[in-house]
Amino acid sequence: MSHQVKWTRRGEWIELSPGKAIAEAEDRDLETIAWLNNIVGIPEKLLRRLTHEKKIQWSGARLRLALFPSRSLGIDSIWQELEVLYEDDFCLVVHKPAGMTIHPDGRKGEVTLDQIVAAHYEVNGEEAAVRHIHRLDQNTSGPVLYAKNEWAQLKLDEDMRMKKIERKYIAFVEGSVSSSLSEIDLPIGKDRHHAQRRRVSPTGQSAITRVRVEERYTGVTLVHLELDTGRTHQIRVHMNHLGHPLLGDLLYEGSIGLIGRQALHGERLCFSHPFTREYIEVADPWPTDLIDLQNILRT
């Protein structure tokens, strides 16, 4: 459900116009809460906190909520060029290049996407905590979604849990994938013999990948993939299990003759805006290494 509530940001406050009926209601507080719940869809946890901290205020006919309080970044910032695919006061979608991790894991000298996003916030005067909503493997490229405030984080985390955030990928895999393959529904668990790897395992967590064949080359197929679940290495494990490892995916038996990383890219991210609930589709163009790979395969 999307709502047509007009809003303006003023510093840490968002200003809304609920209309005369609510502004002049006999029990204005009660009507305000009902309006925020039923029309605007405020997350319950946030409503409790704002009410408790007296951060919901009327100013004439306008209702003000402190949705954008100053928060520390929570991470050291490192400035680097950042490709922003979508941004507003509630969320940010950025391109993650292959080879970069999202969150620091203690390795010396590594630069992570979270740290670059932190610098982006600093430069733009955003006093927001750096909070990614989902992850991509280090050697997968594609879009990553960030929440800029508590409202966005609560809504987007919930949408992620309810599988309402669509992530669409393309991959170049070995062999000729059958056109009849449309869904892989196989549970994934840890590989006892290899700390980094995952494998299809009857006792694993349920994992569903949707597949569509896009183009065939000699010994290679380009496939579109969609995740219903987000298990670690899900696409890589599923495709390898069916005998179609991703090109360049050394960890899962992929050949590295044509590309030096798994040929996997997040092409599209679709989600409902955390405030307006409007459907947003963000495309992330292919990186040059994949365009080059396709050109080689087509010759």
Q: Class of the domain at 167-266 and 294-298, according to the CATH hierarchy?
A: Alpha Beta
Structural class: alpha+beta
How many individual helices? 7
Biggest sheet architecture: 6 strands, antiparallel
Overall form: elongated
* Cα distance spanning the termini: 48 Å
Domain Pseudouridine synthase RsuA/RluA-like: 92-241
GO molecular function: catalytic activity, acting on RNA; pseudouridine synthase activity; RNA binding
Family: Belongs to the pseudouridine synthase RluA family.
Protein name: Pseudouridine synthase
Secondary structure blueprint with pairings:
Blueprint: E1 7-10, E2 13-16, H1 20-23, H2 28-40, H3 44-52, E3 56-59, E4 62-65, E5 84-87, E6 91-96, H4 113-123, E7 131-132, E8 142-147, H5 150-161, E9 166-174, E10 183-185, E11 188-190, E12 198-200, E13 208-217, E14 220-227, H6 234-241, E15 264-272, E16 279-283, H7 288-298
Antiparallel strand pairs: 1-2, 2-4, 3-4, 5-6, 6-8, 7-8, 9-14, 9-15, 10-13, 11-12, 13-14, 15-16
